[in-house]
Amino acid sequence: MFNSLSDRLTATFKNLRGKGRLTEADVDATVREIRRALLDADVAVPVVREFAARIRERALGAEVAAALNPSQQIVKIVNEELVEILGGETRRIRLAKTGPTIIMLAGLQGAGKTTLAGKLAKWLKAQGHSPILVACDLQRPNAVTQLQIVGQRAGVSVFAPHPGTTSEHDVPTGDPVAVARAGVEEARQKLHDVVIVDTAGRLGVDAEMMDQARRIRQAIIPNEVLFVIDSMIGQDAVNTAVAFDEGVNFTGVVLSKLDGDARGGAALSVASVTGKPVMFASTGENLDDFELFHPDRMASRILDMGDVLTLIEQAEKAWDKEEAARMAKKFADQEDFTLDDFLAQMQQIRNMGSMKKMLMMMPGAQNIRQQLEQFDEREIDRVEAIVRSMTPHERVAPKIINGSRRARIARGSGVHVSEVNGLLERFAQAQKMMKKLAQGGGMPGMPGMPG
Ligand code: GDP
């Protein structure tokens, strides 16, 4: 799923990593790479153009300049914009307030409509609904039978006209509008709370098919019209989507065959071009290969970034701006970094939540899983206890902490002297790093992480 796009974007961000500041040239190079990756993935040209412009504008703006880590901030921006082109918030099915909820499916032949009807029915059934499928694809010889088989697999009823001139419901078998209407009536009578209407598709968009779909829509007034699109059809996706949007004014998009190894980017354009949300993803031939589409999670998957977003958000939330400003001023004034500062930073880190959980959200965390499992949260408590056992003078002038003071501090905080030594060593390293940062004019990082 979007593998090559994902690889390309990740590689682009890798080039940025470790850069303390981003120049306009860095930003331009990055945006160029992103644009190429999207175009190569078949994302529609106007969508790419707008996307790239938004990224560039934001990347050169204040939010990146003020960021603790500019390259991470860029990833965050790309992620947010990606969520936006994928439709923003997760959009669930709108259920009817009275009577059955009517869902109509539209799309080209082979898009995956009939399969989707079964998937949707099974999914809804698992949630306690009692869906019925209605076969209105009367063009393709096998379509009705295929829907019946799918219904059987999903364990739901199927309403279909019998072959011949009229059905058992006296519905002319050749008239999909009448079948749709009768199907909805059947649902009312048999108390099905959801009706899923499968319609005919053609290999290409044609006026007759669109007219038929439009007439079905007018006859049954569905709560949702889902446009099913094969994710593998490339740049044609956008034209097809626009045609269907004009023809049946669909309310949501289903991306099918997302399991394929295709570039898939065209599918990414559909929500953006039509302004209609992607609601479901179909990811295989089995009825269970189906999921509610979450733009945010899909974006994370494409960017292969773990749950870094939550991580950054939590860090932002926990980051005490006043404390950060106080620290920044200290550096500007080249004041000494003290053990009190060290402790304050430690507490800021702790405010973000469980260290282990936070670290597990890092991309690449899987590689260091074992070390993370062994991480001891109480380490921060011990550091705090040790610093608190020092006198105020010791905290600002740690050089005076000799052997007997160390023994006293260890006794006071209930740790072994070696732990006091270890902390002082880490502090000395942090202090050195801070001095370097201050001279370089950078923002303070988070030194002295235990472990
Ligand atoms: P329809 O003509 O729009 O009703 O499309 P169908 O439901 O008949 O699907 C066309 C073909 O695509 C069938 O062979 C399905 O098994 C296959 N198909 C449908 N959805 C998916 C999917 O999500 N992934 C894959 N790999 N194949 C699918």
From TrEMBL:
InterPro entries: AAA+_ATPase (IPR003593), P-loop_NTPase (IPR027417), Signal_recog_part_SRP54_M_sf (IPR036891), Signal_recog_particl_SRP54_hlx (IPR013822), Signal_recog_particle_SRP54_M (IPR004125), SRP (IPR004780), SRP54 (IPR022941), SRP54_GTPase_dom (IPR000897). Composed of three domains: the N-terminal N domain, which is responsible for interactions with the ribosome, the central G domain, which binds GTP, and the C-terminal M domain, which binds the RNA and the signal sequence of the RNC. It comes from Arthrobacter terricola. PANTHER family: SIGNAL RECOGNITION PARTICLE 54K PROTEIN SRP54 (PTHR11564), SIGNAL RECOGNITION PARTICLE SUBUNIT SRP54 (PTHR11564:SF5). Its main location: cytoplasm. GTP binds at residues 107-114, 198-202, 256-259. GO terms for cellular component: signal recognition particle. It comes from the Bacteria. CDD domains: SRP_G. This is Signal recognition particle protein. Keywords: Cytoplasm, GTP-binding, Hydrolase, Nucleotide-binding, Ribonucleoprotein, RNA-binding, Signal recognition particle. Belongs to the GTP-binding SRP family. SRP54 subfamily. GO terms for molecular function: 7S RNA binding; GTP binding; GTPase activity. Its EC number is 3.6.5.4. It catalyses: GTP + H2O = GDP + phosphate + H(+). Residues 277-290 form the SRP54-type proteins GTP-binding domain. It is found in: Cytoplasm. Involved in targeting and insertion of nascent membrane proteins into the cytoplasmic membrane. Binds to the hydrophobic signal sequence of the ribosome-nascent chain (RNC) as it emerges from the ribosomes. The SRP-RNC complex is then targeted to the cytoplasmic membrane where it interacts with the SRP receptor FtsY. GO terms for biological process: SRP-dependent cotranslational protein targeting to membrane. Part of the signal recognition particle protein translocation system, which is composed of SRP and FtsY. The gene is ffh. Residues 439-451 have a biased composition (Gly residues). Gene3D superfamilies: P-loop containing nucleotide triphosphate hydrolases, Signal recognition particle SRP54, nucleotide-binding domain, Signal recognition particle, SRP54 subunit, M-domain.
